[in-house]
TrEMBL record:
<dbReference type="GO" id="GO:0005737">
    <property type="term" value="C:cytoplasm"/>
</dbReference>
<keyword id="KW-0460">Magnesium</keyword>
<keyword id="KW-0479">Metal-binding</keyword>
<dbReference type="GO" id="GO:0005524">
    <property type="term" value="F:ATP binding"/>
</dbReference>
<dbReference type="InterPro" id="IPR036565">
    <property type="entry name" value="Mur-like_cat_sf"/>
</dbReference>
<keyword id="KW-0067">ATP-binding</keyword>
<keyword id="KW-0436">Ligase</keyword>
<feature type="region of interest" description="Disordered">
    <location>
        <begin position="450"/>
        <end position="470"/>
    </location>
</feature>
<keyword id="KW-0547">Nucleotide-binding</keyword>
<dbReference type="GO" id="GO:0004326">
    <property type="term" value="F:tetrahydrofolylpolyglutamate synthase activity"/>
</dbReference>
<dbReference type="GO" id="GO:0008841">
    <property type="term" value="F:dihydrofolate synthase activity"/>
</dbReference>
<dbReference type="InterPro" id="IPR036615">
    <property type="entry name" value="Mur_ligase_C_dom_sf"/>
</dbReference>
<protein>
    <recommendedName>
        <fullName>Dihydrofolate synthase</fullName>
    </recommendedName>
</protein>
<comment type="similarity">
    <text>Belongs to the folylpolyglutamate synthase family.</text>
</comment>
<dbReference type="InterPro" id="IPR001645">
    <property type="entry name" value="Folylpolyglutamate_synth"/>
</dbReference>
<dbReference type="GO" id="GO:0046872">
    <property type="term" value="F:metal ion binding"/>
</dbReference>
Length: 470
């Protein structure tokens, strides 16, 4: 079974039902019960692995990666399931920072495929087994065999009808929420919040809520009061109360922060860029501390926080790709996500600033008009992913903000690099598929995140990978 055949199989069920489901909201078409059926049919490997599910509109990936690094730095073996990959499908399934290898990928896929084919679905009625259900089934078989202690899983665009709902999250995380995927999750902000709050399930013991807009926080509280986000015994920990950031400095070298979780204060120097990463990291610290305590391995030590902060990587999220010219790449899909990158550009004081943006349907074309005043030239190119359509409705202001439209993102990025002086800056913003295009254009490989305990193991002469208990 080759990779192309495997890819065809994973998406076959979804693609067969896609014509029937076009334009229908998630609550009508998504079936987490089918994801649960796949897991049961392969022996319920998720039951043996306590799981954190991370949901939200932005910061999900960075928070999930930071959490995985923190738990790993504390001595746990950590499985990480993430959303759309940047270069290889193997990136969706990582153990201790490293993607699943070819042999294991194919071996466990060969277990899941016949099981999934045996579960009856009728694509004519819009029924399908989602690709994420199949990826996570492969992942949990792999994690169980390799002895993972815990799994961190990033939810898709929603959570209430997402395939991660089948995992029975022991801990739920909700990163910042804003208006996105309105057609699938909306039409109102209240609907979107309700979907995201669905990360909290019947088995969830604690919920961790990152920094939110006041209106979003009120809507989350409404969902909670209605009993639609876990029962009354579920503990909720919120940003600014149970944990938070007390100081932050960000520049092109990294992000230095001071934070707290409960009564414990800490400092961290993050390799990640941008003030928003301090918020994400503080959220991850709070979750990691709770997970470790619940598993009898806590509290989270300052040494583990320091190791994780220095080593955590999350490619394509406000990442500096070049110094001269300064090239910043970020999976920014909403106008509210521009500030961290623009702050770094102001610090660099470039002679000229150019930008290439690649968005897909469901993202915010208003990002273009919001970005226009800050750049000397703005170009647009759609991502190469054939499954993604461009924004269906371009506001006149957004269209007028663009100096030139390209059909090919690789051509747009190459032209922008040629036009940007060495003492200038180039911003590359867009959906994850566009980020993948940019990484290909600049020949960067985002697959291996590294391991925060590798240096500890090397210093100990290779005698295991777990540091002394904190």
């Amino acid at each position: 079974m080759g990779f192309l055949a495997l890819d065809d199989w994973i998406y076959a069920s979804y693609l067969a039902a896609r014509p029937v489901n076009a334009g229908r909201p998630d609550r009508e078409v998504r079936r987490p019960d089918l994801a649960a059926a796949v897991l049961r049919a392969i022996g319920s490997p998720h039951e043996a692995l306590p799981t954190v599910v991370v949901a939200g509109s932005k910061g999900k990936g960075s928070t999930a990666a930071s959490l995985a690094f923190l738990l790993r730095a504390a001595g746990l073996s950590v499985g990480l399931l993430t959303g759309p990959p940047l270069r290889s499908f193997h990136e969706r399934i990582r153990l201790n920072g490293r993607p699943i290898d070819d042999d294991d990928f194919l071996r466990f896929s060969a277990v899941v495929e016949p099981v999934a084919r045996g579960i009856p679905v009728d694509p004519a009625k819009g029924e399908y087994i989602g690709p994420i259900a199949l990826w996570q089934a492969v992942g949990y078989l792999y994690f169980r065999e390799k002895g993972a202690d815990v799994v961190v899983a990033e939810a898709g665009r929603g959570a209430r009808f997402d395939d991660t709902r089948a995992l029975g999250a022991r801990w739920a995380v909700i990163t910042p929420i804003f208006e996105e995927h309105v057609a699938e999750l909306g039409p109102t902000l209240a609907d979107i919040v309700w979907h995201k709050a669905g990360a909290v399930g019947s088995r969830t013991e604690a919920v961790f809520v990152g920094r939110q807009r006041p209106d979003v926080f009120r809507l989350l509280q409404d969902v909670r009061r209605r009993g639609e986000a876990g029962g009354p015994s579920v503990r909720w920990a919120t940003f600014g109360e149970a944990f938070g950031v007390t100081a932050c400095e960000a520049d092109l070298q990294g992000t230095r922060m001071a934070g707290f979780v409960g009564r414990t204060a800490y400092r961290a120097s993050l390799a990640l860029l941008g003030r928003h990463q301090a918020d994400n990291f503080a959220l991850a610290v709070a979750v990691a501390d709770a997970v470790l305590r619940s598993l009898g391995r806590g509290p989270l030590s300052p040494a583990a926080i320091e190791r994780a902060a220095a080593s955590v990587r999350w490619p394509g999220r406000l990442e500096r790709l070049l110094e001269r010219p300064l090239v910043l790449l970020d999976a920014a899909i909403h106008r509210s996500a521009l500030d961290p990158a623009l702050e770094l550009v102001r610090l660099a004081r470039p002679r000229r600033t150019h930008a290439v943006v690649g968005l897909a349907a469901g993202k915010d074309p208003g990002l273009l008009s919001a970005l226009r005043p800050h750049v000397d030239a703005l170009w647009y190119a759609p991502p190469t992913n054939p499954h993604l359509a461009p924004p269906s409705a371009w506001p006149p202001k957004a269209r007028a903000a663009v100096d030139r439209f390209f059909a090919d993102p690789m051509a747009a990025i190459a032209a922008a690099l040629r036009a940007t002086p060495d003492d200038g800056a180039l911003l590359l913003f867009g959906t994850l598929s566009f980020v993948a295009d940019a990484l290909r254009a600049l020949e960067r490989d985002p697959a291996d995140l590294g391991d925060p305990l590798a240096a500890v193991s090397a210093r100990s002469g290779g005698r295991g990978d777990r540091p002394p208990p904190p």
